[in-house]
Amino acid sequence: MEPIITSLLDTDLYKLTMMQAVLHRYPQAHVRYEFRCRSAHKLGALAERVEAQVGMLRGVALTKDEAEYLRSLRFMKDDFVDFLSLFRFNPDYVQVSRDGDELRIAIEGPWLHTILFEVPLLAIVAELEFETHPDQARLLAKGRERLEEKLALLRSADVVPAFAEFGTRRRAARRWQTEVVNRLLEAKGFSGTSNVDLARRFGLLPIGTMAHEWLQAHQALGARLVDSQKAALEAWVQEYRGDLGIALTDVIGMDAFTRDFDLYFAKLFDGLRHDSGDPVVWAETMIAHYRALRIDPRSKQLVFSDGLDVEQMIALEKAFGQQAKIAFGVGTNLTHDLGIEPPSVVIKMTECQGQPVAKLSDSAGKTMCRDASYLNYLCSVFGKEAA
């Protein structure tokens, strides 16, 4: 078996930006992550091969060229790149098992040493699942056909949506993601990729800021629970001092976020990212929120990144392109659109510092918490019903 992950930079940028902040602010924090398949795929038979691939991660290390590339990014600090040059995956932090037809994965250990497992593990699971299909060549041919249809639709559109490729976690295969990005180089509006290795190799802009786990972890890092989002946003501002200024809005729901995202944060952050709930309602709400704060929403960026396709991008650009700076991150619809249902797999933080943490999504089925009593308490503190 050949290793699927061969580069430490074969990950999403936000894992590295969060890891740098963890190094500087919470180097001793202890966390737990858990895997979930939200679709009907039965992945239990993959357990042994997943475990073997986890073992192979031990040999992945940052190269000299990769380190030099990271140092060229303004927001990457020298001490973090030095640390990453010494970093090695420790498979002992990962437990892979089979429960009948279900695949179980848990990651537990120091946050600083476990944070990079998520994206490679999800990519491994998705690629191993793709390898179970008997006619991969036919599926990839279908994927090329669908990709050309997307490119043609972008060429004919009367608006040009700015979009990036966000598909590492659920790609059918690394070679397919590489092919997709290569074809996207000629697409109208294509602005970059979240995959740091592909950005480096293609000379693209690596795109990403924070993920849900950054705000989730702050539920257990010392601030009052009701102040956890504000603590997470403040820590981010202090770490990046104006860089990477896109905030994620859906960890405890849109209403709770807008209450915390006051004039102070609205001026400090460049914009917001949508990842669950109705995108039209979200955009209308956030534009109204900026206006209520007497901030021109045309000076701010709204990034949509929840299950998008090209038609949705064009429609949202037409609806809101004159009211704010609109951008899109497209994942599965680019890197696993092959005429078959892709596995909907996620790995989410469920504990920090021995305490449960949760994401209260704006979409049904996306809320994830292993402790029902904590989930109820979190809902009561923020005045939200669990989705």
Automatic annotation (TrEMBL):
It comes from Alkalilimnicola ehrlichii. It catalyses: 5-phospho-alpha-D-ribose 1-diphosphate + nicotinate + ATP + H2O = nicotinate beta-D-ribonucleotide + ADP + phosphate + diphosphate. One of its GO terms (biological process) is NAD+ biosynthetic process via the salvage pathway. The modification Phosphohistidine is found at residue 212. Belongs to the NAPRTase family. Residues 9-125 form the Nicotinate phosphoribosyltransferase N-terminal domain. NCBIfam families: NAPRTase (TIGR01514), PRK05321.1 (NF003704). Catalyzes the synthesis of beta-nicotinate D-ribonucleotide from nicotinate and 5-phospho-D-ribose 1-phosphate at the expense of ATP. Keywords: Glycosyltransferase, Ligase, Phosphoprotein, Pyridine nucleotide biosynthesis, Transferase. Transiently phosphorylated on a His residue during the reaction cycle. Phosphorylation strongly increases the affinity for substrates and increases the rate of nicotinate D-ribonucleotide production. Dephosphorylation regenerates the low-affinity form of the enzyme, leading to product release. This is Nicotinate phosphoribosyltransferase.
